[in-house]
TrEMBL record:
This is Lysine--tRNA ligase. The gene is lysS. It catalyses: tRNA(Lys) + L-lysine + ATP = L-lysyl-tRNA(Lys) + AMP + diphosphate. Its EC number is 6.1.1.6. Transmembrane segments: none annotated. It comes from the Bacteria. ATP binds at residue 299. One of its GO terms (molecular function) is lysine-tRNA ligase activity. It is found in: Cytoplasm. It is an enzyme of class 6 (ligase). A motif ('KMSKS' region) lies at residues 296-300. Keywords: Aminoacyl-tRNA synthetase, ATP-binding, Cytoplasm, Ligase, Nucleotide-binding, Protein biosynthesis. Belongs to the class-I aminoacyl-tRNA synthetase family. The keyword Hydrolase does not apply. It comes from Sphingopyxis jiangsuensis.
Length: 533
């Protein structure tokens, strides 16, 4: 891991940086002006409920928290920090997700802890272990430094026993906080403690009476019988708002961000943490990712994007770049946002080396790569992803990767996979995106009105150019034709749209000068001939 974020030249700029990770990190400096007592590490936590397959929103929380963690280290010249990724895998399954196999089998286990439910994919010892493994695989792939903590392991090992006894001692205090927030029907059965039935193994939602707090003994009704039961060693878990507060206190959490939909929950958990003798952590309340319909992304619905889907069509860095931007603004998260995110990432990366320290700290790519524990690459790609998509589109769905590289090699000096490994990966992304989303929708239309005459002039002008004509030279020709009133274009936008629709089969496209220079004059003239035929 590189410590580029600890460069002394950045610390001064960090003190006044308006980049949101630094604004968040300054909350922790204010919380502990002299550092955490005893030289302890500042503890950052992220929470994850493995009741469904992990999605980008889950990854997003670890990423953004890591960005704040690194910003804090920059501000404090490397004060110790830790990041705990906590999985609430002892939670009872309340609903079967729509996007997993063996639905009927899972329904038989409703109410049981996620770690006690068989893996419907048949790969791991439980449903929770499967989902935890999927999340950890990508966190590891991205290079995050974190400690994975399983709720089941903490409860079952007795690591939370002292904290559970503390909850029992403050049972009434917690009820006084929670009951006024609940509907009458819910309040009638509410208990901070959810015992695991010794008969059925279900996480019970029943009223509980504290018998002996220090011994962890409670009584409740289970299948018509009143029993006394020890909640230590995995005999119970806590209602999640209480569980959240208990973790903050037991683990000593200093920072945890969460979504806007949990705002009220955060307030209640903060009050409970205080009742338990602790303190609510600092944190950012972020807006939610939305799907293409503007609906909140849900693990159980499986809407939005999976991590794997994004990586089929875009790079890891573009995913992190998209997650970084404007965390307090709701953003749509669907396939259509990927190409723009890829190109904006590389655009911002190209600006980074020449920027002053304050500008570097405001550049999203700084936070993307610091979160990965690496420096910002200085490689500049010879083509944009948008241009690459158009090239792949006109070459056709049958074009191979080798053919695309041979094509690029004709127009870009030294263009090969060894020289541009990132571009090599983007070719895979572009081919997949074209195959799945572009090619099925391409429909070149015939030119109408003055468009045909304009295309003939473009063909004549291109025929007169040498093979070494620059993209700017070609762009100037395209501009001049579009501005010719004889062809009837109200504005240049209409001319470019006509080029995209007649030559490329889409309503939007690249800078035409750059595209023609890359695709080749002869090949572009072939497209024009096909359009005019």
């Amino acid at each position: 891991m590189t410590d580029m974020h600890l460069d002394p030249s950045l610390r001064e700029a960090a003190q006044s940086s308006k980049a949101w990770p630094f604004e968040e990190a300054r909350k922790l400096v204010k919380r502990y002006p002299d550092g955490k007592p005893g030289g302890e590490a500042m503890l950052f936590e992220t929470g994850y409920g493995p009741s469904g397959l992990p999605h980008i929103g889950t990854f997003n929380e670890v990423l953004r928290t890591t960005m704040v963690r690194r910003a804090y280290e920059t501000l404090t010249s490397g004060a110790p920090t830790r990041l705990v990724a906590f999985s609430d895998d002892m939670d009872g399954l309340r609903k079967v997700p729509d996007n997993v196999p063996q639905q009927e089998m899972l329904r038989e286990y409703l109410g049981k802890p996620l770690t006690a439910i068989p893996d419907p994919f048949g790969k791991y010892e439980s449903f929770a272990h499967h989902n935890n493994a999927m999340l950890r695989e990508f966190l590891d792939r991205f290079g995050f430094q974190y400690e994975f903590v399983s709720s089941t392991e903490r409860y079952a090992s007795g690591a939370f026993d002292a904290a559970l006894a503390n909850v029992l001692r403050h049972n009434q205090d917690i009820l006084d906080i929670m009951l006024p927030t609940l509907r009458a029907e819910r309040a009638a059965t509410y208990s901070p403690i959810l015992p695991v039935s010794p008969k059925s193994g279900v996480v019970l939602q029943v009223p509980v009476t504290v018998v002996d707090a220090d011994a962890g003994l409670v009584s409740f009704e289970d299948e018509g019988e009143t029993i006394t039961h020890c909640i230590f060693g995995g005999g119970a878990k806590l209602q999640w708002k209480v569980d959240w507060a208990m973790r903050w206190v037991a683990l000593g959490v200093d920072y945890e961000m969460y979504g806007k939909d949990l705002t009220d929950s955060g307030v209640q958990s903060g009050k409970i943490a205080k009742a338990l003798g602790g303190r609510k952590p600092e944190g950012l309340i972020y807006e939610m990712f939305l799907d293409e319909k503007g609906e909140k992304i849900s693990k159980s619905k499986g809407n939005g994007l999976s991590i794997e889907q994004w990586l089929s069509y875009g790079s890891e860095e573009s995913l992190a770049f998209y997650a970084y931007r404007e965390p307090k603004a709701a953003k749509q998260l669907h396939i259509g946002v990927i190409p723009k995110a890829v190109d904006e990432y590389f655009q911002m990366r190209g600006q980074y080396p020449a920027q002053a320290p304050d500008k570097k700290l405001g550049n999203p790519v700084h936070h993307v790569h610091v979160a990965r524990g690496e420096g910002v690459p200085e490689t500049v790609l010879p083509v944009t992803f948008g241009l690459l998509l158009n090239l792949v589109g006109v070459m056709g769905a049958d074009a191979t990767k080798e053919q695309i590289w041979r094509y690029l090699g004709q127009y870009i000096d030294g263009a090969d996979a060894a020289t541009y490994p990132e571009l090599d990966a983007l070719i895979d992304n572009a081919m997949a995106y074209n195959r799945d989303f572009v090619a099925p929708t391409l429909a070149r239309r015939k030119p109408a009105g003055g468009e045909a005459a304009a295309l003939r002039e473009l063909d004549d002008k291109l025929a007169a150019l040498g093979s070494d004509a620059s993209a700017d030279d070609i762009q100037n020709i395209v501009y001049e034709i579009g501005k010719n009133e004889a062809y009837g274009f109200e504005n240049l936008r209409d001319w470019f749209k006509a080029l995209y629709e007649t030559l490329l089969g889409s309503s939007a496209g690249p800078r035409m000068g750059s595209f023609i220079a890359l695709f080749g004059i002869d090949n572009t003239r072939r497209l024009i001939a096909e359009a005019l035929a």
